[in-house]
Amino acid sequence: MPLNMLVARHLSRRPPPASLGTLVKACTASSAHVTASFSPGATSATKAGRIIAPPTSLASSASIPSRAFAASASLKENYDHILVERCFPENSDVVGGGVGVITLHRPKALNALCDALFEDLIHAARVLDEDDDIGCIVITGSGKAFAAGADISEMSKREFANAYKTNMFSQWADITKMSKPIIAAVNGFALGGGCELAMMCDIILAGSKAQFGQPEINLGVIPGAGGTQRLVRAIGKSKAMEMVLTGNRINAQEAMDAGLVSRVIDSELLLEEAVKMGYGIAEKGGVAVRMCKEAVNAAEEMTLSEGLRFERRMFHSLFATRDQKEGMSAFLEKRKPNFTNE
Ligand code: CO8
Fold it and tell me: Would the keyword Lipid metabolism be found if you checked this record's keyword annotation (predicted)?
């Protein structure tokens, strides 16, 4: 098996979905990078030629007590409903320049978001968020769906008291707590909770076959993870109201015209383009990237004057970073900056 395939597949025992064919090219890693990311010292075992230990950055981060999750965080060897890959640009020594790709992979159920899938998704997202080699995360779908919503067969049996007492689906919001940017690469149906999951991400790229909708009204319920709130902020009241009241879907171009997505990309190239965009973000200074995310997301919650003050304070604080010194020096010296994310 070529090295790049090994790297692209190292966290998945399942065969990658067909769409990953193009991604593998984008995920090509140099042998130097493989050594750096998966040093023998950190490798506990090798099965059938596949490295199955956590990457060194995760192994070493185990000693950093900064966040409770980090203490035991490593990607699982196998997930039931997702595929996870750590991709690195070819011939690059950018610090933290990798992109974590999480592929929702329950194609027979159109990636319906059952509890177990969401548990997998949140676990992997948290680990990648803590991984110093990774600067950006991509969430994508497989088959003909990004995700066709919450799992209706699982939901159909729930009763009010149980839903209320367990705060059903509240864990979904954990996706919005990641500090690194998340790109949703939507390639097919993004319906109900699937559309809401995409809206929890920071950038939505739509494949040309993408379809977005909030069809919960057809099931006798309403959206429950942002379809009546984030959608309004993204596309305005009238269009959002039409979507949630009629359950009608919009296509990729309509989503683009409405401001829900930032770009429409040929379906075949979507994942590759998303990973490339991720590499572009991951090569910037990591502290500034996180602050950009935090400040832009704060705009949804704050008044203009509060938001401007928050932005200015964050801007000031970046003058305490090495990356600010490096970025400005590099500009003046007419060279590329070498950010260290400090
Ligand atoms: N849940 C469970 N199974 C599903 C779902 C789903 N959401 N969507 C599709 N499937 C299954 C189908 O049952 C079918 O399974 P099987 O082959 O075993 O019969 C398989 O996927 C393929 O589906 P179809 O045969 O229907 O495929 P089509 O191409 O004919 O149609 C559609 C595709 C249009 C996407 C259609 O499947 C559909 O309408 N799906 C339901 C979409 C929907 O209503 N989504 C909203 C769900 S409710 C929700 O998301 C609420 C979120 C609240 C979050 C709250 C957080 C706090």
Answer: yes
